[in-house]
Amino acid sequence: xxxxxxxxxxxxxxxxxxxxxxxxxxxxxxxxxxxxxxxxxxxxxxxxxxxxxxxxxxxxxxxxxxxxxxxxxxxxxxxxxxxxxxxxxxxxxxxxxxxxxxxxxxxxxxxxxxxxxxxxxxxxxxxxxxxxxxxxxxxxxxxxxxxxxxxxxxxxxxxxxxxxxxxxxxxxxxxxxxxxxxxxxxxxxxxxxxxxxxxxxxxxxxxxxxxxxxxxxxxxxxxxxxxxxxxxxxxxxxxxxxxxxxxxxxxxxxxxx
Length: 257
Prior knowledge:
This protein is α/β, with parallel strands linked by helices.
């Protein structure tokens, strides 16, 4: 009989909301989701859901309210630029039931960034921030993102998005970090499915995923195990080694990137 973990892990979750017709149409490839997932993992925060919504106010508002009620953090990307279809800030204000106006500090940053006479009405739209929100620094192009409660609103341009994430990383409170081990053998996935299911029942606190592939023309299977408890993770991984060996395979390990 396998001992249960002594204390439940501290789990902190997040969601990513990608906003923009250009993503859904295929004109723009989203790179921010991959980046935020990796960065949050480093901080002990699990990206638990990701959504892509069009530039439709009611869709954005509904998604923001659903996600912020479900997860510890919500990160949005896109829709805070200077054009008419940049409606994210207004939608966030509506989602929280607050007003929105030119933020004095946001305006000051834009005035410092642009040459005299270049801060036109369109660019000034980027200084419109919902009431009660705090600014997120943008060292790339000055126009700030903002945070209101557990929702962090950021630009869609990857370089700016990444810079904004870096500026807030120190303020994010994470939980216990997930550790992982990947056990691989030249055994077809179907051959170990039943044993893997039994192993998962024995170690319910260890997340297990099965990834079939062909290696050197032969069917193989990689079992990725993740847990916040190293002892439990190692015990489950060693039993996975035994399952593969019992099926005639010679297991080995590496990392799934």
